[in-house]
Amino acid sequence: MHVVIPYVVGALLFALGVYGVLRRRNAILVLMAVELMLNAVNLILVTADVSVRAVLPGTGGVFALFVIVLAAAEVGVGLAIVLQFYRMRRIVVVDEVRLDTDEERVAG
Amino acid sequence: MSVDVAGPLLPLVPFLAGLIGLLLPPGDGGPTRRRLAAGLGVTGAGIALLLALRVLLDPNERSTDPFFDPYGPGYSLGTFGDLTVGYGTFIDAPAAYVAVAVAVVALCVQVYSIAYLHDDPRYAPYAAQVSLFTGAMLLVVCSNDLIMMLIGWEVMGACSYLLIGHDRRLPEAPAAAVKAFLVTRVGDVGFLLGIAVLISDAGSTYLDTVLAHDYSTGTLTAALLLLLAGVAGKSAQFPLHTWLPDAMAGPTPISALIHAATMVAAGVYVVFRTYPLFEQSPVALAVLGVMAAITILLGALSATAQDDLKRVLAWSTVSQIGYMTGALAVGSPAAALFHLLTHAAFKALLFLAAGAVIHAFGTNYLSRMGGLRAHMPVTFWSFVIGLGALAGLPPLSGFWSKENVLAAAAHATEGGEPVPVWAGWVVWLAALLSVGITAWYATRLLLRAFFGVSRAHGPAGPDWEIGFDDARYQRPATPHDPPALMFLPLLVLCVPAALLGLAAYAPGFRTALELEDPHLGVAVALPMVLLVLGAGSAWWIWRAVPGVDPAAALGRARPLFASGFRLDDVQHRLVVVPVRALARLVAAADVRVVDGAVMGTGTTTTGLGRLLAAGHRVALPVAAIAVCAGALVLGLVAWLGAAA
Amino acid sequence: MIPEPSDAYTSYTYTYTDGWPFLLVALLLVPAVGAAVVALMPSGRDRAARVVATVAAALTFLLTLVIPFARPTEFGWFDYGPEAPAITPWLDLHFDWVPALGLAFHLGVDGVSYPLVVLTGLLTLLCCAYTIKKVPAGGSGRALAALLLVLEVGVIGTFLALDLILFFVFFEIVLLPMYAVIAGWGGPDRRAAARKFVLYTLAGSVLLLLGVVTVVAEAGTGDLLELTGASMLSRTTQTIAFTLLLLAFAVKAPLWPLHTWLPDAHTEAPTVGSVILAGVLLKMGTYGLIRVGLGVAPDAAEAAGPVLGLFAVLAILFGSLICLRQYELKRLIAYSSVGHMGFVLLGIATFTEIGIQAALIGNIAHGLITGLLFFLAGTIKDRSGTGSLNQLSGLRESAPRLAGLLGFAAIASLGLPGLAGFWGEAFAVVAAVRAGGPYWLTLAALAAVGGALTAAYFLRLLRQVTHGPATPEVRALRPAIAGVEWFAWAPLIVLTLAVGLVPALVLSDTSAPILGLLAGAP
Amino acid sequence: MSSQPIDHFVLLPLYAAAGTAILALLADLFIARRGAVIGATALGGLATAAAALVAGAGGRTFCTTAAGACSWVPTWPAAVTAVLFAGLTVGVLALSVPALRLGAAPAGEFCFLLACSMTGGVVVAYSGDLITLIVGLETLTLPLYVLVGLRRFAPGERATTEAASASVTFFLISVVSTAIALLGAALTYAATGAVHLDMLGPAPAPLEPLAGVGAALLVIGLAFKVAAVPLHAWAPATYDGAPVPVAAYLSTASKLGGVLALAAVVSRLDTAAVVAVLAVLTMTVGNLVALRQSRMVRLLAWSSVAQAGYILAALALGEPGVVAALAYAAFFVVLELIAFGVVVALRPPGADGGELDGYRGAGRRAPWLGAALVLALAGLAGLPPGLAGLFAKLSVVDALVQENWTWLAAIVLVNAVIALAYYVRVGALLYTARPQAGHIPATTHPAVRVPRPIAAALIGAVTVAVLLGFAPQLLFDGLT
Amino acid sequence: MTVADVLLLALGAIAVGSGALVVTSTHLVRSGFYLVVSLGAIAGLYLVLGAELVAWVQVLVYVGAVVVLLLFAVMLTRAPIGPSADLDRPALPAAVIGAGVGLGLTALFVDAFRWTRFPSPDPGTAERLGEQIFGAWVLPFEVLSILLLSALVGAIVLSRPDIGARKAEDA
Hints:
The complex is a heteropentamer.
Chain A: H1 4-23, H2 27-51, H3 59-89
Chain C: E1 14-16, H1 22-40, H2 46-66, E2 91-98, E3 103-109, H3 114-133, H4 141-160, H5 164-173, H6 175-185, H7 190-219, H8 224-227, H9 235-252, H10 261-268, H11 271-296, H12 298-323, H13 329-350, H14 353-384, H15 395-398, H16 400-413, H17 420-435, H18 437-465, H19 472-476, H20 483-501, H21 504-507, H22 511-519
Antiparallel strand pairs in C: 1-2, 2-3
Chain D: H1 12-30, H2 34-55, E1 61-63, E2 70-72, H3 76-102, H4 107-126, H5 130-149, H6 162-192, H7 208-223, H8 234-241, H9 244-266, H10 272-290, H11 296-315, H12 322-346, H13 362-365, H14 367-381, H15 387-402, H16 406-430, H17 452-470, H18 472-479
Antiparallel strand pairs in D: 1-2
Helix pairs in contact in D: 1-2, 1-4, 2-3, 2-4, 3-4, 3-9, 3-12, 3-17, 4-5, 4-9, 5-6, 5-9, 6-7, 6-8, 7-9, 8-9, 8-11, 9-11, 9-12, 10-11, 10-16, 11-12, 11-15, 11-16, 12-14, 12-15, 12-17, 14-15, 14-16, 15-16, 15-17, 17-18
C-alpha cells in the first residue's frame, strides 16, 4: 500500500488541529482541535509501523495506545479545568484569559 | 667629619629640617612655636652651610670605602630593569662653591624671614618649605644621579609653588604660584623626556656613565634640546620665563631665594653639569645661545619700564640668567658659573634690601617711593652695592663675572668653539647691548626709590598698597632701616656682592672654576662706555624733569616693555585658551559620546525590554499563535537544516 | 565567604613547598571569618562589631607582613632543576578544587603580587578603623565593615590566585559587595551609580571569563605556573584570549574609553568605598593584565603593546583634560585615576621590565595617594556638606591642617618626584622612550605632556579649594582632625613619602618574576 | 516474546515515589489529618531520595531482548536528578504547609498530586525510551494543571480567578506542545523505527529530513516544559497565578524534567541548530522582559525563562553539553527554590507573590530571609556569594568554549550582564528603607515570623546551595 | 492502486473532511459530531493499516468516552446549541499557520515516502499488541496508571469545590 496517503491524512489533520486551536475561542472547541492533532499523531504512528523497519515491530501501535490514554486523561483534567474556569467566570472564551495584566511600574 | 659623610648629608639636613618643620602644627602657635620653627629652619640652613664649607675645604677627597664613596653610584634606592637609581653625590669644586652659595643665601633668607614674617601665623610651614627648597637645590647640586637630580629639580618647583602662594591676602598670589609651577612643569616635560632619552641610551642613570656614553648625534641633540626645555622653564629663559615676574607675589625673601641661588640657578647649573654633552652638540648650543640672547634683551628691556620694585629685579634676573646661559652657549661654563655665584650674591642682597624697603614702606611701587636714602642708609648702601654689581660697575663682583661672559662671547665670535660663530655674535651683541640697558634701569631704580622727594603722600593722599604678607599698616610710619635680623643678612651679603669678583684673582677659586685669568684689556672699554651711557642717560632724564619717571622717556614702547612684550598674552592665546577649549571638548565628548554610548546601551536594552514586555501583555490565543508560529518556523529551519 | 579546601578533597593532589603556605589560606580565612562574625553580631553591638572588624583587618594586615618571613629559607628556584617555571612563588599552595571545571585552589605570592597584598591589607585596615568612628548614613556600620572584609577576601584572593579560574572567581567576589557599599552607604544618586558600576564591571568580567575559559580550553590547564613563560597556545588563541582579557582588565583598570563607570561610582560612594575602590579594586585590572594577560598570551601581548600604549596615552591626556573641567571634588579625583592608571597601563604596554616595574610601583603609589585623596575629599565633603568646587574655597583659612594634607596628597598625586607617584609616571615614560622608535617616543612625549596637565588640574583644584577667601560652607566645617582620622591617614602619608624616597620598598623583589613573565614573549 | 526478568531493586525509586503517592491518598482516606498526610508525603519523598541513592547506578531493566535497549536506565545522573526531584517535592511541600494549614487547598489531594508529579519526575530521570519519557513527563505535568488551579476560598473571601486562568493557560498551551512533542516522536519513529533512546540514530537516506524535523519538533515540544522562547508565554502568567509554592515547583521540578527530557533527546539526535536558536531567544527575551517586571513572581518567572536559555545553550552542544546542562539545572533549581521559599516566607500564607514594592526593606526586617534571597539572586546572576550559580555559569561557558561555540558563550555572558540589572534591583530593594509611615523609626520593623516548615526547607536549600558552592565537584562527580 | 489504497484514500478524505468541519462549524454541538465522524474514519484507517486493537480502543475511548465528555462539557457550560457567531477569531493567523503546518508536513511526507509501495502488514491481533505492552512496555503502562489516577483525583478535586472547602473558622 502507499503509506504516503495516511501520512498525508495525518499531516492535514494535524494542520487542521493547529488551525482549530488558533481559530477557536471556545475552550471546548479548542480541546476538540487538540484531539484532532493527537489523532493525527496516532495515525502517523500507526502508519509508521507499516513503513519502517522498527527495532520492535508494532511499537507505533503501542505508542498510539499510550497516546490515546494520555489524551483521555488530559481531556478529563482539561474539562475539569475549563469547567472550573466557567464556574468562576461564567465564560469559556479563551480570549478572556490574559497572560500579563502587569502594569509597568518599574522603578528606574 | 669626612667628605664622604658630609656630601650625602648636605641635601639631607635641610630636607629633614623641612619635613620636621612641616609636622609642626600650622596656625599661629605663639612665640614658642615660632621659635621652634625658626630654630629648625636656621639650624637646617646653618648645618648645610657648615657641611658645604666642609666639602668645599677638600672637594676632591675620595674615600677608599666603595660603599661610602660619595662619588660612586651611592646607595641604591630602587632598580627599574637595568636602571638603578642611587643616592650618591658628585662634588667637585664648582659644585661645592654653588652649594656654599646656596647655603649662604638660604641661611640669610631664613634669618631674614624671622623678622620679615614676624606676625605671619603661617610662618612655621613657610620656614619648613624654605628648608625643603634648600634641600632640593642642594640635591640638584650634589647628586650624581640624573633621576635624583630630577627629584630635586621638581621638588623645587613644588616648593616655589607653595611659597609663592604663601601670601593669603594677595589675590594674585595663588594664580602666580600656579603659573610658576605649571610653566616650569611644562618645561619639565622636556626635561624628563631628555633625561629619559639620555638614560635609556646610556643604560644608566649615573651621571658619570651618562657623560661618558657615546651618543649618536641625533639622539644627543634631541635629548639636549629636550633638556633645554626644562632649563628654560626653571631658569626662566625665553619663552618659558613668564612665570618669574608674576612670582613676585611671593614674600620677598622667597624672591631672594628663588632668584639668587636656587630655582633659576638650577637650570644653568644642570647645563653646566652636563656640559660635556653640550659640547658635542653645536645645535643645542646654538639654540641655547639664541635663547640666551633673546632672554638677555627681553629681560633688560622689560626691566626698564616696571613700576614695581620687585618686578624690576625680577626682569633683571631674567636678563642676568640669560648672561649665564649665554656664557654656556658660547663655550664658557666657567664664566657662567662665576656669574651664577656673583649673581647669587648681589641678587640676594638686592631682594633682601628690597624687602627691607617694602617692609618699612608698605608698598612695592616705585611711583610711591622716593627720598628714602635719608631714612634708610643701610638699605640704600646695600642697594648701591647690589645695583652696581648688577650693572657691572667695577670693581663690584658683577663687573668681573660679566666681563668674563663678554670675553667668552667675543672669543666665540672668532670661531674655534663648538658653538657656531653666528651664535657667538648674537650672544655677544645682546650681552653688550644689555650692559647699557642694565645700567639704565639700575640707575633709574636707585634714583626713583632713594633720591628726590618722597611721593608717599601723593596728590590723592595716602594710598597704601598692601603687597606682602605682614603688612598691617594703618598709616605710613616714617621709613626706617630694618630690625637687626633683617639687617644682618644684608650686611653679610654685601661682602660677596662687592668683593666676590676679586676672587677671580684668587688662584684657588680660579682654578677650581677653571676660569681664565682675568685680563682687563681694551675690550673692557666698550661695555664700560655703554655702562656710563646707560647710567648717565638715566640720571640725565631724571634730573631734567624731576619727579617724573625716566621710563616715560620710553614713550610708546613703555607699555610694551612693562608687559614683558605681551608674551603673557601670547602664552595665554597659544596655550591656555586652546587647552581649555580642548578640555571642554573632551569633557563634553566624554559625557555625550563615551558615556553616552554606555548609557545608550542601557537605555536601548531597557527599551527593548519594555517593548518585549508590552508584546507579552496579551491574551492567551495570541500566545498560542506565537507558540505555533514559532514551532512552525523552527520546524522549517530544522527541515532545511536536515535537508542541507 | 571564601572557598576553603574542604576535607573531602584531601585525596587529591596536594603539594606545597617549604615555608608556611597555609599562611595564604589564613590571609583569606581571617577576613572571611571576621566578616561572618561581624555580620552575625547583634545590631545593638554595632560599634563592637566594627572594632571586631578592625581587629580582623589588623590581623590580616599583620599576616601580610609576616609573609616574607614565611618564605622558604632555600629560595625555591634552586630546587626546580633545568626546567624552572617562569614564576617561582615564595609560597605555593595547591589543592584541586573542582577538577571538572579545571579549577584548582592554587595560591601563591611573589614579588609582583606581594606589595599589592600588603596594600590591600593596609587600606582595608585603615578603612575599617575609619568606620569605627564614622559610619556613613545609609545602613548599619557593622554591615559596612563586614562588606569591607569580604572585599578584602576577594581582592587578596585575586592577587594570590595562581589558577586562572580561581583568579576569575576571586575577581567576581568583589562585585556585589562593592555594589552594596555604594548602593547602601552612598550619596543621593547612589542607586544609578552603583548599578552602572556593577553592570559595567560585570560586562568586563564576563569577558575575563570568556578569555580565561578560552585559554583553559586550549591549554588544558589553568595553572598559571604552567602557562606562564611557556607559550602553550597558538597565536590565534593568544590573540583572542588576550583581546578578551585586555578588554576585561581595561574595564576594571579602567582604561579610556571604558572608564565612565568610575566617576559616577566614586562620586556617590562613601569615603571608605571610594578608598577601597580606587586603592585596590582598580589594581585588580592592572595586576590581571600583568599576571594573566602577559602570563598566558605573551606573543599577543607583545603585539598589542602599541595599541594598548596608544589607549593608555589617550587615557592620560583625556583623563587630565576632563579633570580640568570637573567641578566636583570626588569626581575630579576619580577622573584623575583614569589618568594615573593610564600611566600604569603605558608602563605595561611596553612589556619591558622597566615598564612593568613602573606599572607595579604606579599601582601601589596610586593606591596610597588616591586612597589618601579620597579620605580627605570624603572628609571635606562630609564636613562641609558639599563637594562642589564652586562652594569650596579658602580651606587654608579655616582648616589649615586639612588643607595642608590635601595639598600634600594633590602634589603627590601629580607625580612630584620624591613622592610615591613619581616613579610610576617617570619610569613609564622612560620605558616608553626605551621601547624606541618614533611611535613610542611620541607616546612618551604625550604621556609627559599629560603629566603636565595632571599638574594643571591638581593645581586648579588646590587653588580652588585651599586658597582664596573661605566660603560659608568651608567656614562652618570642623577643622580638627580626629584620632581615628590620623590613624587612617598617617600610614598613607608616611608610605607615600617612604615609597617616594625608596622605591625599592616596592620593587625589591620584582625583577625575577617580571623577567619570568616576559620570558614567554619573543 | 516472553516477559523479561525485572530488576526490582533498581526500581526502588519508582516504587518509593509511586508508594508516596498511594501513601498520601491512603493517609488522607484513613487518617484524614493534615499533619499526618503531609508528614507521610514528606517521609515518602525522603524515602524516594534515599531509594535513588541506594539504587544508584544499578543494572538496567525493562530491556527489549532483541536489541538490548532498555526503558529503565539507572545511572548516577539519573539518581542525582531523582534525588533532586524528591528534594524539591519535599521542599515545595514544606513551603505549602502554611497555606495547607489555612485550608487554601485540600491537603490530601494536594499531597497526592504532588507525589504523582514527583513520580513522573523520577520516571523521566530514569527513562530510556521516548514512550516512557513522554508518559513520565505527562505524569510530571498533569497533576500540576490541577495544582495550579486548585484553590479553596473561605466563605466570605473574595474568590479570585487568577489561579483558574493560570490553570487554563498552562493546560491549553501544554496540550498543544504535548501534541507537537508527540508529533516529533512520531516522525522520529517513522524515520528511524526506534523509540529507545539508545537506538535513536541517523535515519536512512530519504528519511533524513523527516528525522530532522521530528527531532526538532520533539525538542520544541519538550522545550515547552522548560518555558523556552517562543514556547514560554504560559510561564509568567501561570507562575503568577498559581500558588507560590506550586510556582516554585513549576519553575524547578517541572523545568528539571524538561531539561532531562531535552538532554535525553539532544544527546542522541542532531538538533544543535534548533536548540541554539531556542537558547539565544530564550535567554535574551527572558532577560529583557524581566527587566521591566513589577511583580515578584513574574520577575522570577521571567528570570527562570532566561535561566532555561543558559541550559539550552549547553544542550545545543548535544552530548558534550549534557553534564554542564544538568549541572546548571541542578544548581539552578536549588537557588530558585531558595528564592521562591523566601517569597513564600515573606508573604502571608496562601498569598500570591505580590508587587516588588511590597518587598521594600524586607531584608532589614528579616535579615536571614534577606540574606537567603540575596544568596539566591546572586547565584542566579552567577556571582559570588552565590558560588553555586557562578560554577553553574562557569560549567556552561566552559562546555561551550571547549566545543568551540564561543559565540554562544559570549551571548550567554552578555545575558548574564543584563540579568544582573534586575537581580540587583530586587536585591537593593530588600535593603531600601521603606518610606516613613507615620513616625515609626525605620529601625523598628515588625519582625517576620517564619513558619517552621518553611524555615526548615530554606535552611535545607541554603545548606545545599552553600555546600554545592564550596564543593561543586560533588555534583559533577554525581553527574558523570 | 490497491484496494487498501482506495480504502485509505476514502477514509482519509472522510477524516480530513469532517476534521475540517470540526474546526469550522459554527455549531458547537455539530463540531462534536463531526469529531466523532473524523475519529471513526481514523479508526477505519487503523484497521486498514493493520492495527486492529488500536482501532477498537480508538472507538471505545474516543468515540465512546472523550467525545461524550466533550459534549457533556458543552452542555455544562451552557453553550448555545444552535449556530453562534462568536466562536471564531479572525482567521488569518490561524489560516496562515495552519496552512504552513499542513503544507510543510505534507511536503515532508511526500518527499520522504513518495509513491513507494509498502507491503500490507498482517492484520495485527490484540494478542500481539498485548504481549508487547505487557512485555516491553510494562513500565510506561504502570506509570500511566499513576497518571490516570492522578487525572481522576485531579478532575474530581477540581470539579467538587466542596472537597477540602474552607470552613468559616479557617479564614
